[in-house]
């Protein structure tokens, strides 16, 4: 089975969690709600990729976030590709930033409580990734 290593991050503020809606310009999972995610390139550390993706996808710099929790990697089946899985490295960061500057990868964002995730069309296992961080 083929696998791809990715980070999935959540920002928290005032007991809410930021999720992003994937735009129609990305290759996979268009229109689904997701965490801040990105492919881990080469031998880079997952925490490095997590902070980089937060900056790229939200405009929030490393000095405006604090690591709350990281959990062990999770394996998630990929419904879009046969014989493929995602190896997800979950991270939770706290921020006090209010301004979110989305890049082309996402079309919307919103702050939710964990119970609201079940009402949304999400990328596979996003609810489990978030639950692992709570």
What's the short story on this structure?
With 134 residues, the chain is α+β, with helices and mostly antiparallel strands. It has helices spanning 46-58, 126-133, and strands at 2-13, 16-22, 33-34, 36-39, 65-70, 74-77, 84-95, 106-112.
What is the CATH topology descriptor? Nucleoside Triphosphate Pyrophosphohydrolase
Strands, total number = 8
The CATH class name reads Alpha Beta
Form type: globular
The helix fraction, in percent, is 10-25%
Radius of gyration: 14 Å
Write the layout of secondary structure elements.
Elements (H helix, E strand, L loop, with lengths): L1 E12 L2 E7 L10 E2 L1 E4 L6 H13 L6 E6 L3 E4 L6 E12 L10 E7 L13 H8 L1
Parallel strand pairs: 1-7
Antiparallel strand pairs: 1-2, 1-4, 2-3, 2-8, 5-7, 6-7
Q: Mind explaining what this structure looks like?
A:
The protein has a single domain, classed as Nucleoside Triphosphate Pyrophosphohydrolase. It contains 2 helices and 8 strands. Strands 1, 2, 3, 4, 5, 6, 7 and 8 form an 8-stranded mixed sheet that branches. The model has no long low-confidence stretch (mean pLDDT 92).
Task: Looking at this protein, list some descriptive labels.
134 residues; alpha+beta; globular; Nucleoside Triphosphate Pyrophosphohydrolase; 8-stranded mixed β-sheet
């Amino acid at each position: 089975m083929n696998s791809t290593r990715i980070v999935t991050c959540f920002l928290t503020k005032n007991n809410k969690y930021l999720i992003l809606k994937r735009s129609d310009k990305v290759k996979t999972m268009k229109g689904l709600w997701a965490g801040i995610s990105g492919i881990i390139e080469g031998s880079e550390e997952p925490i490095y990729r997590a902070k980089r993706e937060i900056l790229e996808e939200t405009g929030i710099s490393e000095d405006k976030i604090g690591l709350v929790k990281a959990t062990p990697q999770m394996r998630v089946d990929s419904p879009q590709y046969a014989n493929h899985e995602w190896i997800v490295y979950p991270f939770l960061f706290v921020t006090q930033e209010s301004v979110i500057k989305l890049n082309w990868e996402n079309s919307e964002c919103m702050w939710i409580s964990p119970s609201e995730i079940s009402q949304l069309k999400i990328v596979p296992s996003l609810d489990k990734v978030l639950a692992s961080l709570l």
